[in-house]
Amino acid sequence: MADFQTSTHRAKWIFTPAALVEKYKAANRRAIRTLEQYGTTQMEVDLDGSISYPEPQISAKENADRYSRPKPLNTEEEQFMRVYYENKLREVCCAFYFPHKIQATALIYFKRFYLQWSVMEHQPKHIMLTCVYAACKIEENHVSAEELGKGISQDHQMILNYEMIVLQSLEFDLIVYAPYRSVEGFVNDMEEFLHANDDQLQIFKDLHETAKMEVDKIMLTDAPLLFTPGQLALAALRRSNEVHAVLDFQRYLGSIISRQNSAFTTAELFESLDAIDSLVMSYKFPSERDMKHINRKLKSCWGHDDGKKREKKSRHKSQKSSNEIQNGPSMAE
Amino acid sequence: MGDGNNTTTTNNRGSNSTSNNSEKPEWLQQYNLIGKIGEGTYGLVFLARTKSPANRGKSIAIKKFKLSKDGDGVSPTAIREIMLLREISHENVVKLVNVHINHADMSLYLAFDFAEYDLYEIIRHHRDKVNSAINQYTVKSLLWQLLNGLNYLHSNWIIHRDLKPSNILVMGDGEEQGVVKIADFGLARIYQGPLKPLCDNGVVVTIWYRAPELLLGGKHYTSAVDMWAVGCIFAELLTLKPLFQGQEAKSTPNPFQFDQLDKIFKILGHPTLEKWPTLANLPHWQSDSQHIQTRKYENIGLHSVVHLSQKSAAYDLLSKMLEYDPRKRITAAQALDHEYFRMDPLPGRNALVPSQPGEKVVNYPTRPVDTNTNFEGTTSLQSSQPVSSGNQVSGNMAGAHLAPNRSAPRQMAPINMQRMQPPGMMNYNFPSQSAAASGLNPGSMAMQQRGMAAQAHQQQQLRRKDPGMGMPGYPPPQKSRRL
Question: With an 8 Å Cβ cutoff, are A163 and B195 in contact?
Fold first, then answer.
């Protein structure tokens, strides 16, 4: 695979924790601003895959006074929403028996998409399915939108409508590096490191299997946006090694670092692995009550006047967006 | 990435179904359309010039991809080409300058720097107009640069899979004059661990450059298939004729291409299990399709076809590229190291300058431009130019798709060229070097320190230290890692 060192993944899609928080906040702020201005947050996606901002609702103000004012999600609630649909995404991939690689790619697409947008702006259900669809296309496991839609009783046209927006929001950086392969590479390396003989193969197999399950957990956190696949893989292997006690992990890390003339110290590496661990430990899945609450809020944000919006759609299409175009989807500027 | 808002909004306004067509989409306003320069099954190719003050007048080739015809969203070919080109950057590989989306018809426009020539045209010009061989320096420089780009691709785990003269571009006047650019990545693949064997998607490419293991039904593409194609191209540069000009069998979706193999065997001799042990496992050989195993071939000898002494370095290199056994075939990295490139004349960056003072410069024809066309469905055209309707253009394209031996309309052609195009796709592609594109240049962007980024993809290193190659950073092409 193209080299990770020179990849768009490394150059553009790995953030500092502070930068990541800021991106989530920015998307949230923007959606809230839109809500205040227009009384709704949801972007409309046309048949042709273009999007428009919501209609300004003249009545929004009075509505807001008369009924309950739409309440925006805060960033924690947005996070819950993403967590919830990332799990859904995994369910869909499992239902289709897609390989790990597709699931991982789709998850990373989904995460990257919501760096650009708030969940209030684009329905995560649609985005989740579109990410799975795009991941299948990219990973050469093409599944038609129709097939995908049928399999989960969803309208496949919606997937097609969103495809361009998703690709664009990913800035067409479509090659992503999941940690599964790195895990495999490290396990092979460990075998060599320990001069493993044939009797030990089973223990490495176990180490590998447990590590894969650890990667599964890591993939549902923010860690893939914060750390390189190699680091994620090592974090998974370290946890797996705690179970199987295959090798002295610190010594092993020391050996990698010295072999690669790394600029980093073992201590720094450990710090990263600890940070990944703590993301896994602090992972929270929303309760049913949380989701109910969030969904109620979201509904109020999205409004229900679909018919009205559709009518005016083509005309409205976007003065607002046109001035943002310059730095728009063209990838290179 | 900047602010999410900026990067995610659509760029094309005013071209939805109800809007009038006089308003150009914004992205298009940065270009002056000159005309159409090519077409293929994927769509059309246009020549345009940038208007922005910084690069005013710079020629850009814009490749338009239609929405996939089976109603299944964005063309996978386009996606593949974009995603690969986003990740790579090399002097001898085309560079994607920009991607534009036209929402009106959900088509994608890929902008590349324009390359005036390609090997197809250069060879044709020598054969039909100059009536003399391409000078040795030019052949060697073209070949070296082609291998240099290919070595880069292969060491990044990318197989091109559709190398042929028309996909090898050469830059015209300017800073990069005479520089080779490998183009057209629509069929290219990353070959580390795809989910399915690579043969799965009914490949339609010209068979003349197809490696024997594929012709015999081999399911796995390795980087060796590209080297076979380079060998064919090398021979064609020397003789100005395609080396193995087989008749393509078109009956079924994936017919056995006997005639192509026949052409190969006539020149290289019948392959033997002795020299090529895995031959026995190749489906068409195994099933003895059309008695392929027992036919008799006299070996005319490659050297006599290409008029090279069997002792020459050029012949040695060529025969190593046309080695039957893909595992023994020379790799791009090994080829670059070959004695041929260390002998006079040494290869150079500008392949088109004369190698010796006093030698005459060959003036290759510039690309014909059909100005009688427009960016389909997106715009009213440059006011100064007569324009056909978008519909008409798309009509042409449909025709092109059906006709196996079509040639693009080329009103502006200096001579009436018929590009004999074996079915397949793509004539043109366009390179770019400029790439004002920070986003396109992953390496240039500062990346936060996340601990040990350096050892991130450890497995890359692990893979690369695979034995057998002795070539750091070069993937062992014959290892099957594909499943």
Answer: no
